[in-house]
Write a structure and sequence with these properties.
Order of helices and strands of chain B: EHEEHHEHEEEHEHEHHHHEHEEHEEHHEE
Shape of chain A: globular
Structural class of chain A: alpha/beta
Oligomer: heterodimer
Number of helices of chain B: 14
Largest sheet of chain B: 6 strands, mixed
CATH architecture of one domain in chain B: 2-Layer Sandwich
CATH class of the largest domain in chain A: Alpha Beta
Number of strands of chain B: 16
Strand order of the largest sheet of chain B: 5-6-1-8-9-7
CATH superfamily of the largest domain in chain A: P-loop containing nucleotide triphosphate hydrolases
CATH topology of the largest domain in chain A: Rossmann fold
Strand order of the largest sheet of chain A: 5-4-6-7-3-8-9-10-11
Chain lengths: 247, 414
């Protein structure tokens, strides 16, 4: 910026501060001088790089949107397995739809001794439990699976819970992941989520008649802590264990 | 006192976990079995045991907030128990080992061990292990003296007060941890930022910024820290860098600050007297807050309109530099003045017993007993409300079974 324009800017800033107080306008610190946001790796290196902060953020809400068999459950499970790399960390899977397969989660790399599976009786209870578990600040990550099973008449309850959760989670270390489907997305969730990823399966990987895995594409729909818009292909293979690589 | 560099100083911090609640339970065994909270005379939390601290109850919290955070806790006035007698007995045992000791809340004390042997050559040494080192032997003797009273003390030692405090709190599992002063900075770098005695707003800001450890905070630019968190934030940053040069100040040497207020004409209205004292106290407290210090006692010397001088004082349950606790202490001191119907012509306000500000936030964000224990407490409450079957643990029972649903079993979370 030229000296003349710099001086004009400083004059305007000074006048604003005199009129409205010194707190009205301040200079921000260069973001590059602050350390990166705490995060959990997705275990897909390309996706971690595209997210900019190295994974999904701790203390924030993230949403994974995708139809059935798109890979969102696998991606969520791999995030939890990354959290388990730290010793003594605990994670939770809120299984509202009663479709959680612990054996599959084990093959994704989770330690079942440090996985809390929550099976609430009803969606309202699920939301209350989620809130309490997050506010306890004892979990590294929590996955909420079954948002699509929420009845339309619970939208108000969901909205209220999400707004409170969005505030509470920032005081904790917990990364909260909601799994939702394209036909049943919540507008409040889309608003409060810090990161929104859309995932859809592109093709199966086969060897002869056997399905060995699949390739999916993850698009960053929203990212409050980084750049949105990138689309990253990922490859998931079944080999006794569930492996993933970013392509 | 000669100016000692951090590399030469050796300071130990000895503390007894849940000192106050333990004294209370010894006096009344029926208090066992539930979380216990002790209140001071202003109905604020003076001390809380482990379980209550896990629920987020910290020193200074109002009674109603404490009850809301832990409804099952027993909340009793601390005045019902011989806390200060137990504290005196505890300190009496310590005095024989050094003439420079400084109490730090209930059951905690700093000890200046400078000059006792040479610093250990290794990174850290457990005092329960090898002997044959003067400092280790001295620490063992001090801890043994406290143990003879029936306490289980924990001791940490390194080159600064803040470092010794953090080392001592971290030595929870080992009972003692001695650190070479030169290794202090590397040790502090990995500790959580919540060990700093900063207020909740500042700690929340740090959390939003992704600053989790003392090392991250120490590496921030000094000018940025000063601009955002003020002089107290900058002081805290120096501590995080291992540059805490505060000496161990025995109680009889604790400094004080004073100010005089004249009333012309003499003033009898209590409200106006309280307001004037509060304004003057704030001017004295602001520099203390910047240095992360706090006052333990307020003293009023009142010159009445009839020429007589009377004094009254009040000891704060916990040293404080915040306006509200000092205002309450001033009100209590004013109540003790023998007015005899007279007005005040002059009041000298003294904040005495200037000491280090106690850390308050540990229990709020972090605790040493592990996530699993805290999660269990949370799940107990949730299970009571939503049913125990809502929280499960999975076990692989038959991983090779052809049917996926038969490969695992679910049991209640333990």
């Amino acid at each position: 910026m030229s000296t003349h324009r710099q001086r004009k800017l400083e004059t305007v800033v000074t006048r604003l501060q005199v009129q409205y107080g010194p707190q009205a306008i301040r200079k921000t610190v260069t973001p590059a001088r602050w350390p990166p946001a705490p995060h959990i790796s997705t275990t897909f290196a390309e996706l971690d790089a595209a997210l900019g902060i190295g994974g999904l953020p701790n203390g924030r809400i993230s949403e994974l949107v995708g139809p059935a068999t798109s890979g969102k459950v696998t991606l969520a499970a791999k995030v939890l397995s990354a959290a388990h790399r730290e010793p003594e960390t605990l994670v939770a899977w809120l299984d509202l739809s009663r479709t959680c397969d612990p054996e599959y989660l084990y093959r994704c790399g989770l330690d079942l001794d440090r996985l809390l599976i929550v099976r609430p009786e009803d969606p309202a209870g699920a939301l209350a439990i989620t809130l309490h578990l997050v506010e306890s600040n004892t979990l590294a990550a929590l996955v909420f699976d079954g948002l699509a099973d929420m009845a339309a008449d619970l939208e108000a309850v969901l909205a209220g819970t999400l707004e409170r959760l969005a505030t509470s989670v920032t005081l904790t270390e917990t990364a909260v992941l909601f799994l939702s489907e394209p036909h049943a997305q919540s507008r409040t969730l889309a608003h409060v989520a810090a990161v929104r990823l859309a995932i859809h399966r592109e093709r199966w990987i086969t060897r002869g008649p056997d399905v060995r895995g699949y390739e999916a594409r993850v698009e960053i729909l929203k990212h409050k802590l980084g750049q949105a818009g990138a689309a990253v292909p990922i490859r998931i293979t079944f080999d006794g264990t569930v492996n993933g690589t970013g392509l | 006192m000669p100016d000692m560099s951090a590399a030469q100083r050796q300071i130990a911090y000895l503390w007894v976990p849940a000192f106050g609640p333990t004294v209370a339970r010894r006096a009344q065994p029926r208090l066992d079995g539930r979380p216990l909270v002790l209140l001071d005379e202003h109905n604020r939390v003076l001390a809380a045991d482990l379980l209550a601290a896990q629920a987020g109850i910290a020193t200074g919290l109002p009674e109603r907030q404490a009850v809301a955070r832990c409804p099952e806790a027993i909340v009793v006035p601390a005045a019902n128990f011989p806390l200060w007698e137990a504290q005196e007995a505890f300190l009496e045992r310590i005095k024989g080992y050094t003439d420079r000791w400084q109490p730090n809340g209930l059951g905690g004390v700093y000890l200046d061990a400078t000059g006792i042997g040479r610093p250990a050559k290794d990174m850290a040494r457990n005092a329960g292990g090898e002997a044959g080192h003067a400092l280790v032997g001295w620490c063992q003797a001090v801890a043994g003296a406290v143990r003879s009273l029936g306490w289980q003390p924990i001791l940490g030692a390194t080159g600064s007060k803040f470092g010794a405090n953090v080392v001592g709190l971290t030595a929870w599992q080992n009972a003692a941890l001695l650190l070479v002063p030169a290794a202090q900075r590397a040790f502090l770098a990995g500790q959580p930022v919540t060990t700093l005695p900063m207020d909740l707003d500042a700690l929340t800001q740090l959390r939003h910024l992704g600053i989790r450890t003392l090392g991250q905070y120490a590496r921030l630019p000094a000018t940025g820290v000063l601009a955002r968190f003020g002089p107290e934030g900058r002081t805290a940053q120096r501590w995080a860098q291992g540059l805490d040069d505060r000496p161990v100040v025995p109680p009889w040497e604790a400094p004080e600050v004073a100010a005089r207020i004249e009333f012309d004409p003499p003033l009898a209205d209590r409200e106006r007297l309280s307001a004037a004292l509060a304004r003057q106290a704030e001017k004295l407290l602001a520099p203390l807050r910047e240095r992360l210090q706090a006052a333990s006692r307020v003293l009023l010397v009142v010159v009445r309109a009839d020429g007589r001088t009377v004094t009254a004082g009040h000891t704060l349950p916990v040293p404080a530099a915040a306006a509200e606790p000092v205002r309450l202490a001033l009100a209590a001191a004013l109540d003790r003045v023998a007015w005899n119907g007279q007005s005040a012509a002059e009041i000298t306000l003294t904040l005495a017993g200037i000491t280090d500000a106690p850390g308050r936030q540990l229990a709020l964000f972090d605790f040493t007993t592990g996530h699993r224990t805290r999660l269990a407490a949370t799940l107990d409450r949730l299970a009571a409300r939503f049913g125990p079957d809502s929280f499960r643990l999975a076990t692989l029972t038959d991983p090779d079974n052809l049917l996926p649903e038969r490969r695992f079993g679910l049991s209640r979370w333990r």
